[in-house]
Specification:
Blueprint lengths: L3 H18 L8 E3 L15 E2 L13 E3 L2 E3 L1 E6 L4 E10 L27 E5 L7 E16 L2 H9 L17 E10 L2 E12 L9 E2 L4 E4 L5 E11 L2 E2 L2 E2 L4 E11 L3 H22 L1
Helix pairs in contact: 1-3
Length: 282
């Protein structure tokens, strides 16, 4: 009967061969936590990157963390000497208890998931603003999601543009929903909904606005190569959604899925290696 060591050996060999033959693929689970990002934008005091390279020009190159691509578009308006962005920024702002647009780069929990320093902030006014591109076929296990401080206080207290969720009576059935869409090429595989705020309960004591990191299971998306995001709210006006179109994200956990031909090659190599090893031991 083969020992536990004998059974582990082919698996370890497959992993080593996978890394040797397909270095661009992640052959085991990986987690993106944004701790490898250290480029910061002009005027950020070394606290966030929003695509501003500091030369008064527009930039739509996006950025990467752990080899995974995150869309970002920074636009500089020379007429008004003003810049604005969409897509993903990364941040280490620790100001979760401050409200208002000036605090748009802060996650409500104040730090990253698990107390880490960095996390991502998405400004996603329309589907396609924020896109994660893996560069290979992957299965995403989960993503940690929370509100930004800006969106949180806008919903909890209301502001000059947005209503207080629940209204004055607390009975308005408001919600703020994030939809996470999986894509393989241009084909959508599935979608997962996560409510960043939900005031639709009959018992108002159950109403909530998310203020902590929450792990969202994405295994139902299947095999994908990119993620897109959509935000919707019950608070809308003449120009669209009044709720600030932001969410915070951290700890993207995924595993690459090798092509079927690659899997067959690896399996045959591992089997041949194990058979030869057993013959030599006899």
């Amino acid at each position: 009967m083969p020992s536990a060591r004998d059974l582990r050996a082919p698996r370890d060999f497959v992993l080593s061969l996978c890394l040797l033959l397909f270095p661009s693929l992640v052959c085991r689970g990986d987690i993106i936590g944004f701790e490898d990002n250290s480029l910061y934008s002009q005027g950020s005091n070394g606290l966030y990157y929003n695509g501003d390279l500091g030369n008064n020009t527009s930039n739509s190159q996006g950025w990467k963390s752990g080899g995974v691509g995150f869309s970002n578009s920074y636009t500089f308006d020379s007429q008004f000497n003003y810049g604005y962005w969409s897509g993903f920024s990364y941040s280490r702002v620790n100001a979760g208890n401050e409200s208002g647009f000036q605090n748009q780069y802060a996650a409500k929990p104040g730090t990253g998931s698990g107390g880490s320093a960095h996390y991502a902030i998405a400004y996603n006014s329309v589907v396609g603003d924020s896109i994660i591109t893996f560069g290979a076929q992957v299965q995403v296990a989960s993503i940690d999601i929370s509100n930004t401080a800006y969106a949180y206080f806008s919903m909890k207290e209301g502001d000059q543009f947005s209503k207080k969720f629940g209204g004055n009576s607390g009975n308005d059935p408001d919600f703020f929903k994030l939809r996470i869409l999986g894509f393989q090429g241009s084909t959508q595989t599935a979608a997962v909904d996560f409510f960043l705020a939900d005031y639709r309960f009959e018992n108002n004591a159950q109403d909530y606005v998310v203020d902590q990191w929450t792990r969202v299971d994405l295994t139902s998306l299947g095999t994908i190569d990119s993620l897109k995001f959509a935000l919707s709210s019950t608070d809308n006006g003449q120009f669209g959604m009044n709720t600030p179109a932001y969410f915070a994200m951290d700890r993207v956990e995924f595993s690459a899925v090798p092509e079927p031909g690659s899997v067959a090659l690896l399996s045959m190599a591992a089997l041949g290696w194990w058979v030869r090893k057993r013959k030599l031991q006899r």
